[in-house]
Specification:
The structure is a homodimer of 157-residue chains. With 157 residues, chain A is α+β, with helices and mostly antiparallel strands. Chain A is 39% helix and 21% strand. Chain A is built from 5 helices and 6 strands; from the N terminus they run ααβααββββαβ. β6 of chain A pairs antiparallel with β6 of chain B. The structure holds a DNA duplex (30 and 30 nucleotides).
DNA sequence: ACCATATTGAAAATGGTATTCAATATCAAT
DNA sequence: ATTGATATTGAATACCATTTTCAATATGGT
């Protein structure tokens, strides 16, 4: 059976000579149950509700810690906030972002990944990570103008 | 013959009821001759050398103006700076970014673009723009074994 | 339990970017 | 050209997400 996130965190902390604290565990639990792509402030508000004692700075620090521990991905979209995404065992994926309503959809496309590797190889680059973001209008924000060929079922995550 | 950037800017300004100023023209000329992916601060330093009277805020404002006028692309990589890239008639391209030395290479790959459109269509998204960035080690930095303290003057997180 | 030190919370600092405001420049109308 | 309405400038200040400081507290090895 897989290790729980709390166990993984404890292991990371021990390995780094850092300490387990109740704050870190509480924040981790709330982080896991929060939606994807939470900002520090969004998470802080959730944390505050459940554990009024925990401070703003601790949430910030802890989120960065999660990223360092490999439990979360840190992403900066174009809205000025750093967002964190819990990295359970979910595959790598990229994002579609609505510039009007802020909706974030996820997708993965193996063929794009392969082409990226080709590009990297051609440039003698050793890729560590990448980001691919498509900005535009989601279906709802495009208004009532329905485009031909845009009517199939949804396969959103 | 194509219109010059200065002409394009003038046209945009006139169309918006805005005014042509010597500052805007000077900044545009320096912007064009500056390297790709300049930050506001980098450009300000160049501007200051050539035209000591022009202020910091004007450079910031003017760079955003260029982006609004379609003369520049505004990009935020992961180094905390907003960078601007002169958009002459250069094709769209994406970036390879060295996480060690900061080198930025450009590439374009039509097959990736096509796949992106497929993804968008499948999700009923109307793409306005996109960003694809591959972060990793450039050829030169793959050889370095030392953890090298950052050497650059400033601009390091 | 002791102790060295990692961590916390609150406040203040940081740093890139945005805005305010009085002075000045631009442009259309005269 | 001169005028007048207003867009623009430069300097200073505000903004705001994020980071850091620091004294108090909690943690883990002994």
């Amino acid at each position: 059976m897989r290790k729980t996130a709390v166990e993984l965190l404890a292991k990371y902390l021990a390995g780094q000579g850092l300490r387990s604290t109740t704050q870190r565990d509480k924040i981790l639990q709330i982080f896991i149950n929060a939606g994807r792509h939470v900002s520090a402030e969004e998470l802080y508000m959730r944390v505050m509700k459940a554990h009024p004692g925990i401070g703003y700075a601790t949430v910030y620090r802890t989120l960065k810690l999660f990223a360092a521990a490999g439990l979360a991905d840190e992403r900066r979209f174009e809205d000025g906030f750093t967002r964190y995404e819990y990295k359970a065992s979910s595959n790598h994926h990229d994002h579609l972002i609505c510039t009007k309503c802020g909706l974030i959809l996820e997708f993965e496309n193996q063929r794009i990944e392969v082409l990226q590797q080709d590009v990297a190889k051609k440039n003698h680059f050793k890729v560590q990570n990448h980001k691919l973001e498509l900005y535009g209008l989601c279906e709802a924000c495009q208004g009532k103008k329905i485009q031909a060929g845009n009517k199939d079922t949804k396969n959103r995550k």
